[in-house]
Specification:
The protein is an all-beta fold. The protein contains no helices and eleven strands.
Length: about 120
């Protein structure tokens, strides 16, 4: 069974930066597309970024140009570098690994951006 553990969240002022990490268990990590999502209060869960096993990336429109997703397969870790943070980036950030019959999700890490 896959386990995902996120870390790196915290409090930051607008314009600041944070780097999130998600460590996955098991050998499947290097073969799948990993994703970062965020959950804002009162909103649907939103795609932040994805990265394929080959390193191709995709970003949600709201974070393009500010966030960078990367992965280190040797460490079973996916990262999210977040720059130029805005208050509207405040959310619980969740790591996802696709699987059947259900995707695997981490428990999330809280990011709070103050004015």
């Amino acid at each position: 069974q896959v386990q995902l553990v996120e870390s790196g969240g915290g409090l930051v002022q607008a314009g600041g930066s944070l780097r999130l990490s998600c460590v996955a268990s098991g050998s499947i990590f290097s073969r799948v597309t990993m994703g970062w999502y965020r959950q804002c209060p009162g909103k649907q869960r939103e795609l932040v970024a994805t990265i394929t096993s080959g390193g191709s990336t995709n970003y949600g429109d709201s974070v393009k140009g500010r966030f960078t997703i990367s992965r280190d397969n040797a460490k079973n870790t996916v990262y999210l570098q977040m720059n130029s943070l805005k208050p509207e980036d405040t959310a619980v950030y969740l790591c996802k690994l696709p699987a059947w019959p259900t995707d695997y999700w981490g428990q999330g890490t809280q990011v709070t951006v103050s004015y």
